[in-house]
Amino acid sequence: MKPILECQGLSKRYSSSFYALNNLNLALEKGQIVGLLGPNGSGKTTLIKLINDCLHPTQGTILIDGMEPGVATKKLISYLPERTCLDLSMKVKDVIAYYADFYENFVTERAYQMLQDLEINPNARLKSLSKGTKEKVQLILIMSRDAKLYILDEPIGGVDPAARDYILHTILNNYNEEATILLSTHLIQDIENILDRVVFIRQGQVVLNQTVDEIRTQHGKSVDSLFREVFRC
Ligand SMILES: Nc1ncnc2c1ncn2[C@@H]1O[C@H](COP(=O)(O)OP(=O)(O)OP(=O)(O)O)[C@@H](O)[C@H]1O
């Protein structure tokens, strides 16, 4: 089966001597939830921006479902960036209508179902919502598209711990199982029970790419414990 994402020899240089990504190789099969994990500054957001065609590689190639990043791949990817810039004066229901207009693969009923599950009022204005609830709305907008690849850069940082599990399960219940989710986060303990695979990245290179089951059987520990061991300062 063709991988949904394939990066070969991928490098990104920001200044004359500093490489944020350095000959990174990664292939992801369809239909899995993948955690992209690494310490601050390891290159996670840089990789995500390259996949989303927000940056161009210095060297190497990226293929998304066999295609180079561009107009066609943007239809396949639903991307939640680190920072979003929604018009805060809009009501939740207006943002949903806006997304439905903009993206032909947006499923409005799914968005309303998730709003209801998370008890968010569609008539509320975004600026009246707490930071965590705004994050929930942003996640709902992203997960309501019928995409092949969902890329979520730190999706639940502002959400309170009690709501995280609920949100993660809401995501799982609403996404197509043939799709792939690539999720970058530092909240490993909170998400590791929904992950199929983890990719550890250090200084712009992949240092581990294993299923969560392999980690538990081969290393005899949780992803969170392994992360702390591998990246101990
Ligand atoms: N626009 C830029 N110009 C110069 N250097 C940059 C730029 N963006 C990122 N970097 C550097 O590239 C490296 C990788 O940054 P990146 O944001 O990809 O890391 P990250 O793994 O997402 O980090 P974090 O977990 O802190 O969000 C860091 O050293 C960062 O300072």
Automatic annotation (TrEMBL):
<dbReference type="InterPro" id="IPR003593">
    <property type="entry name" value="AAA+_ATPase"/>
</dbReference>
<keyword id="KW-0813">Transport</keyword>
<dbReference type="InterPro" id="IPR027417">
    <property type="entry name" value="P-loop_NTPase"/>
</dbReference>
<dbReference type="Pfam" id="PF00005">
    <property type="entry name" value="ABC_tran"/>
</dbReference>
<dbReference type="GO" id="GO:0005524">
    <property type="term" value="F:ATP binding"/>
</dbReference>
<feature type="domain" description="ABC transporter">
    <location>
        <begin position="5"/>
        <end position="228"/>
    </location>
</feature>
<dbReference type="InterPro" id="IPR003439">
    <property type="entry name" value="ABC_transporter-like_ATP-bd"/>
</dbReference>
<dbReference type="InterPro" id="IPR051782">
    <property type="entry name" value="ABC_Transporter_VariousFunc"/>
</dbReference>
<dbReference type="GO" id="GO:0016887">
    <property type="term" value="F:ATP hydrolysis activity"/>
</dbReference>
<keyword id="KW-0547">Nucleotide-binding</keyword>
<protein>
    <submittedName>
        <fullName>ABC transporter ATP-binding protein</fullName>
    </submittedName>
</protein>
<keyword id="KW-0067">ATP-binding</keyword>
